Sequence to fold (1503 residues):
Amino acid sequence: MTDALRKAPLALPLLAVALVLAVTTNSFLTVGNLENVLVAAAIVAIPGLAMTFCLAMGEFDLSIGSTVSLAGVVCCSSIIDGMPALLAMALALVVGAVIGLANGLVVTKLGVTPFIATLATLVIVRGLSLAYTDGHDQIVSSAALKYLVGGRPLGVPMPILLAVLCTALAWWTVNRTRFGRWVCAVGSNREAARVSGLPVDRIRIAVYMLVGVAGGFWGLLISSQLQKGNGQLGMGFELDAITVVVLGGTALLGGRASVIGTLLGAVLIETIRNGLNLLNTPPAFQRISVGLLLIAALALLGLRRRTVKAAPVPVTVREAAA
Amino acid sequence: MGTDDDQTAVLLQVDRLTVEFPGVRALDDVHFDVRPGEVHALVGENGAGKSTLLKVLGGLHRPSAGEIRLSGSTYRPRRPADALHAGIAVIYQEFNLYPDLTVAENVFSGREPYHPLTRGIDYAQINRRAAELFEVLGVSIDPTATVGTLTVSEQQLVEIAKALSVDGRIIVMDEPTAALSADEVTRLLDVVRRLRSEGRSVVYVSHRLDEVFAVADRVTVLRDGRHVRTAEITATDQEELVRLMVGRDISSVFHREEVQEGALVLELDGVSAGRQLRGISLKVRAGEIVGIGGVAGAGQPELSQVIFGALAVSAGAMTMDGRAYKPKSPADAMAAGVGFLHEDRKAAGILPDLSVRDNLTISVLHRVRAAATRLLSPAAQTAVFADYRKRLAIRTTGPDQLIGQLSGGNQQKVLFGRALAPGGRLLILNEPTRGVDIGAKVEIHHLINEVTADGTAVLMISSDLPELLGVSDRVYVLAAGEIVGHLEGQDRTEENVIACATTGRRIFSEVSAA
Amino acid sequence: GCSDSNKTGSDAPKDDKVVVGFSVYDMQYEFFQKMEAGTKAAVLAKGWEYKLHDEKSDENEMVTGAQALIDQGVDVLIISPFKPSALGPIIAKAKAKNVPVIVDDIGGGGAPYDAIVISDNAGGGKLAAEFMAKQIAANGKTSKNVASITCEPSAVYAARRNAGFKEAIEGLGFKVVAELSGNSKAEEGYKVMKDILAKNPDVAGVFSCNDPMGVAAANAVKDAGKNPVTDIVTVGFNADPEALTAIKAGGLAATVAQDPTAMGALTVKLAEQALAKTAITFGNAAEREVFNPVKLVNKENVDSVK
Amino acid sequence: MSTTTETSTPVEPPRQPGQDRAPMARPSLGRLWDTWGVTAILLILLALTPLFAPDFMELENLQSVLRESAYLGIVAAGMTFAIASGAFDLSVGGQLALVSVVTLMAYSAGGTAAAIGAAVATGLACGLVNAGLITRLRVPPFVATLGTLFVFRGVAYILTQDGPKTLPYDQIDSPFVKIGGLNVAGLPLPFVIMLAVYGAAWIILRRTATGRRILSYGSSPAAARFCGISENRIRVIVFALVGVSVGIAALTYITRVWTADGSAQDGFELKVIAAVVLGGTSLKGGKGTLIGTFSAVLLVSVLNDVLVSQGVPSAYQRIVLGCVLIVALTIDGLRTRFAVPGSFRRAVAGLAARPSASGGA
Ligand SMILES: Nc1ncnc2c1ncn2[C@@H]1O[C@H](COP(=O)(O)OP(=O)(O)OP(=O)(O)O)[C@@H](O)[C@H]1O
Ligand SMILES: Nc1ncnc2c1ncn2[C@@H]1O[C@H](COP(=O)(O)OP(=O)(O)OP(=O)(O)O)[C@@H](O)[C@H]1O
Ligand SMILES: O[C@@H]1[C@@H](O)[C@H](O)OC[C@H]1O
Ligand SMILES: [Mg+2]
Ligand SMILES: [Mg+2]
Fold:
């Protein structure tokens, strides 16, 4: 029990919130609503998983919200121009990959701090997206695109299925592959990674590309829901993605990745949001509640940590030697 | 391959190597060579350029001039991976470990084997192989432990295991024993000999000349970034090496001034801290140097941190000058007049982004302020800096140099100066001479002696047995978090310390119990 | 070349040619692009000079840029304010330099502007309510529950739309069972609609304070397997192209159209009157408001809207 | 075969302890760049501006640029402390909204003095709330301030449920309104306040024990702890400084735009953090430069002003601004890469000697 909690500490706050909602509303526990929550959570969890790698590597990618927009715009306008939908969707992912590659190259080859590099990309890509659309919606009606969120293979909504698959894949990658370990290694001590002969630059570029592709995919999901692309979409999404990762327990300073945590973080955030809507909370109070719940969830973890671990780094906390 | 004997006898040849940093020429026209199957020691004062040379070999620094040949062909590593591919494994003086990853993951980083069936990293294999490496080194470190929770000496052993796990032709070790206990040193030297017998070469850097004479075939002396001499070990002796290193004779005899029994400063009565310390009782008097010995991991850093308020007491009581002493934080302890030197220079010692001057004065900021404005006075700070630079022979380009740019030993001197600066009732020194050169070591011992003359009590933790016994007036021995020995007078012998620390014997001198 | 319409050196003699400065809310929205086009065309048609400043949805940029236009010596300022309540310092500066100020849309924030051209937002909300009630009846639904999706709480003009809708629909015997904010964004409008459907599956209609949210809500309705015209009457506001497209395709029941191009032209007419110091006929003299009518657009008349 | 090689260097006379072989007092170019790099870029930009934007140098325009950048600059000064200590405060946008709303309420209740007091007190209170969450509840600064960003904005929204708080137009001659509009010896008062804030901040960071402790903590929290520096005190001081800076900034902000509600300055936090990092303060903590922050704030403002005055559409403004950010930090990145003497020469030589072998890796 305690071990399970240690591995997935968000489970507790999540259960608490769910319990409160189950009692205070009569619609929270309906199948339709739970599906709602899980689909919404899945849509932010998928890019969140990619962002988990970035944070585990000790870096940020702030540009993902703009990638969402540009990818959606490229996909939709290509469909409008007559490109087959699947190809247009692939093109959107390529756009994401290129943005990620640009981030990676600027960060590794030009030595620009990730925070500024990706902030600059955020601004530039948003500019591209707005310049390209000039404020016009790129409206499409594409069954293939719609299938991304609307499809129900095996009766399960597509985003949920994808999120579960991605989580499994991410978990395996983080914990069982060289790439995953190297990402954590770079995040834990970049200099040591270099000295150990790890291809640090290539690892970093790969992670930025991963986030880029995930951003592109996020853009497809949003465009799938809205059946349009637009330069205004995805604003502020970078914070959403980073929030679910941090909430999930992946350290901001890097070195550790909590894949399951990210998934739970996404579910927690979306449960809170959904709950506040079910309770008809006015917008001003919604903000406060989201803020307070964020703090409360982490405070709960913080207090627990404090009782467990009396002294911080680098005092040796270990079983007494035999 | 060439037929010339002299050519084939050299595996690695360094010629006219020069390395520059802003403001410093760390290596100046240095030559150095390594033969197959030899142990080649590299010695020199702190800042002489030893680590710099090794970093060039490892692909961390690019020389501004010079040439290196490996097995006769040009060797110009552009990055550490190149060195590894060329079969050169380096153990750097400052660890390069991932604190968040496990021991085994650290050891095999970059070379993780995949399991043939699951196609995932074969953890069973790396854990087993790591355990085997530690077995060779004669230590028990859990391969699945997170490295950030290890002691400094355990981390050093992980670094060594990492280098051994690479099948290198040349294994380069930069002060591998600085953090090891006597026992572990013996084992490491055995390992070095075994590597040699396997035909591998070892470049060995150490400030402990007895190790050099115990294991090396040849020795090279660097001074001020220049090559001074390379000699067969049999063709030289300790005195000569010291003279070549420092350019003068050094008497390594430590003379402890007689101190008179002072008042009781610190008393611990049955102090426990979690599972790390159990029922510790000890006393430290004014003007006294009390040593703490024991194998690594017996609870020494925990004991010092409990007294310094960095670790919570779970049972028992402390008194200082007869009054209850319950520091809640190091800040509390410092306010009570306690100074502290941490054993982990890199992780908990240096403030890497700050200058040498700032590192020296950070604990005495109230003393370097203008009285009227309470603003820091750069002049007063520089005065403190100049004083310690002189007393400790700190080699730096000036007060504004970042401490991270100093050689390891010089960083240690700065940290020692920092601990000394506040003065006061009690000085807690963890491994005060770790990594410092022979001359500075003597100097530091003198300084410890000097502060006790002012009535300051010193608690010194050292894994260097000669230092522990030579410098302290009394010695407590720790084992598994308990005090298992208290050695005074005649009883202060290496045999007794080792017996208490490792065999479970308990020896308590009766000379002056309380 | 830098002698385009953007540039009027302050070296140009003041009385030579009338210079109109227009500070626009945000050129990234089609609505304001049309407003800008209408304004510019009217200015140039008079043979006047035109200067544009984009507030980029930022009150700091709005104040700085509008004041800069005044500093550059415009003869009249037309402004579509991102934050109406930040008009004070702009008008203070304009007054000091004797520059009349005509506000276009959004709101006047209580400052002493010369005139404001305003869409009848509350009236638009009322039109939406009346249409919704009729359509619900036509759909044969008996449920008296409806919902509304609002913009961010700070958008005063949008709040008026909602207030107008709410008053009218409640007057028609309906109940607004959910009133949630989608912060003007399509993404959020979609999610909010899903939550509304989960809690109140029986809503018969939903009103959104702008079209991005309205069309997104309609998409959410469709994704829930219902029809946004015949099951849950979904109404937006603005007549953005995406709304018109959706209405034609049966993917949205209706929207409320404003005419930003005409509003732009109207502000120029008022500017001319203000410069000539001739009296302006106000729709609401107390607030110096000149109304620009709104109209409801649905399947029947959508083809007549450009 | 000789067994011993001896270098020609004879054994030298003993070295004085502490004497170095290459004592170099002159500050390295790299160190200078750390502090003055962005300033240099700013100066170059200023020198070039008249070429393509002749109107820029007009007094009224210069005043406008300085006036409008003050509030961001002042908060950036506070944020420099937070970032130098290794944390950042994401809640400044919420703080600015809340402080502005409360200040306007205080003004209508008690006039200028009440407003000024309320601004600083509310800012401080916000900072202390953040510090409390971080030190008492052990919430990491990122999450704590992300949470309070929502909370502060939310409270501001609640306080403005019947519409934004606004300075009534008839108060146009009140001394309070003058804060935003007045010029002192040709300098806009907000900018004068900003200069004073930077002066005070510089003294705190560079000349007080507190400043040194903040940098130490940022450089290595573990080492700082063993120097007797209390983590909690650092957190409280740093977040209080940010809060107070927002309080002061709000005064210059509110008296320029006259209005506030929960939505004021959406996205403010990223702009502030970007300015600080662009200035050369390291996000990893331990390094802080107020001169850099100051110059970065002006750099962004000047650039924005030039782009706006040249009629560049906002979408393209973004593209240019983003590229400038990258270029500015590229220069910095290259500097660190080529800090070692001769490394640049070698890199160039290496490029020349490597005609086509760069494709593979
Ligand atoms: N990154 C750096 N930047 C500037 N100077 C440096 C840097 N690294 C080393 N130095 C300087 O180069 C000289 C040689 O340092 P090095 O680390 O090689 O000495 P060392 O012989 O290994 O000393 P120690 O015994 O103390 O480890 C020193 O003066 C040191 O200050
Ligand atoms: N951030 C801090 N962490 C730990 N101890 C501190 C800190 N600030 C002050 N102290 C301690 O408080 C005591 C008072 O010293 P000092 O006069 O320097 O404090 P201060 O007045 O807060 O400093 P300053 O004048 O820079 O504000 C000293 O023991 C000092 O070490
Ligand atoms: O209707 C307009 C709306 O579409 C825009 O987003 O904001 C201003 C409004 O008047
Ligand atoms: Mg060294
Ligand atoms: Mg003080």
In short: Residues B 21, 24, 26, 44, 46-52, 93, 395, 405-410, 437 surround adenosine-5'-triphosphate (ligand 1) (CB under 6 Å). Confidence is low (pLDDT under 50) at residues 7-25, 355-361 of chain D. Chain D is about 70% helix and 5% strand. The longest strand of chain D covers residues 5-6.
